[in-house]
Amino acid sequence: MSANQALIAYTLRLADNALILAQRMVELVAAEPELEEELANANFALDFIGQARMFYTYAGELEGQGRSEDDFAFMRDEREFGNLLLLEQPNGHFGDALVRQFLFEAFYLHLLEALMRCSDQRLCEIAARAIKEVKYHFRHSSHWLVRLGDGTELSHNRAQTSLDDAWRYTGEMFTADEIDTAMQENFDGPDLASIHELWRRDIATVVVEATLQLPDDQWMASGGKQGRHSEHLGFLLAEMQYLQRSFPGATW
Amino acid sequence: MVAAEVKREQVFEWLANVPDPEIPVLSILDLGIVRDVDVSAGVTVTLTPTYSGCPATEVIESTVLMALRQHGVVDVAIKRVLSPPWTTDWITADGREKLRRYGIAPPSKEKPVACPQCESLDTECVSEFGSTACKAAWRCRECLEPFEYFKCL
Ligand SMILES: [Zn+2]
Q: Looking at this predicted complex, what is its ipTM?
């Protein structure tokens, strides 16, 4: 794999993470428990869609085959998506969705910070733009985790279960494969081992404040980055891609 | 009009009339998203998005194209730059004053935020999230009016 091919694959993974998470958040629009959360969720989803667009557009330029952001989002199959398994998991209840945001955003923040220092200028620029938004998102999900964990007995127990259930999907964030390695070697990309430490430190601080327990490391699911997804992604894509698949080239 | 005759200052004057679609009292110049205007070969307007997912980005770009076309400039290119990322510090003093008159408290490093209606500092944040990503909902305890606050970014 050439350095350019690795960069394209890496950029598409970043785009897929943002898009698939945004699609899950979009499913919650008009279904949040209160108005403030309704506005927060919809606006945060928009941020992620915007980030996905910047990454897809860049991947298309690198590839040079004329594929647009829409081609990547709507005309690729499940196996071609490189998002993390965590992000395609169904929303579940409010606590499940919140914990998913929390665990991912803590990771994404450090990933973007590392990308701001990589040698690919465009990724640096997109990361610098995105990190301002993600900092704010993480503050929001951290606050909520504390409210749920340090809330009632019911909310505490549910938040703990959400955390325990999501834990098995966190392993692949830090497992470097050949694309991560190529990104690191050729473009001074993120070092996932050191991000893992920072992530653990950050989430531990919040989890303790939330009076919750950090789960023990257990068997970790993996394969999302390489396109081996859980059964949930197919259903998500079927809904998201329906219009463009049924009416290719539709405009409005 | 031939593009070569267009003066840079002239283009800025036209852009001063292009509103931000979400807060139409502000022009895109007030908002600080016009990075550069280049008239050396056609007209190139360099813009920066406020937020990654700002739905207004495309609207702004097409409004700029239309505004210049109305003045007979057809050779227009829009350049989108990300770096350095936009910050609320780039909203002009004029823009901040327009926001206040419109009833939106401009971004402020100091808290509490002054009420845009009565200037009281006896205000409180009701919700960090407002009608758009860039605004929060606040309330004035003096005049009892709710108001929007443009968050720092
Ligand atoms: Zn007041």
A: 0.73
